[in-house]
Specification:
Number of strands: 3
Radius of gyration: 14 Å
Length: 69
């Protein structure tokens, strides 16, 4: 399991179009979505974000702040 996955939400469009869902990381305040069908799948980009050092660092800082105060 990746660190900080509890901060991730999936946003699905409620339209008749077949749109890919996009994701939002509440910890990093970032939105992950694709622009066109030729781009990488949003799930793969979200997985990459969860594995990034920036996300892991923010998770460690936030968890240490919660435990000390």
């Amino acid at each position: 399991m990746s660190a900080g996955v509890e901060y991730f939400i999936e946003i699905q469009q409620n339209t008749l179009k077949k749109m890919q869902p996009h994701f939002s990381c509440l910890l990093c305040d970032s939105t992950i979505k694709t622009k066109s069908k030729g781009d990488a799948v949003a799930v793969d980009i979200a997985r990459g974000h969860l594995k990034s050092s920036a996300h892991k660092l923010k998770y460690l800082v936030s968890s240490s702040l919660r435990s000390c105060c």
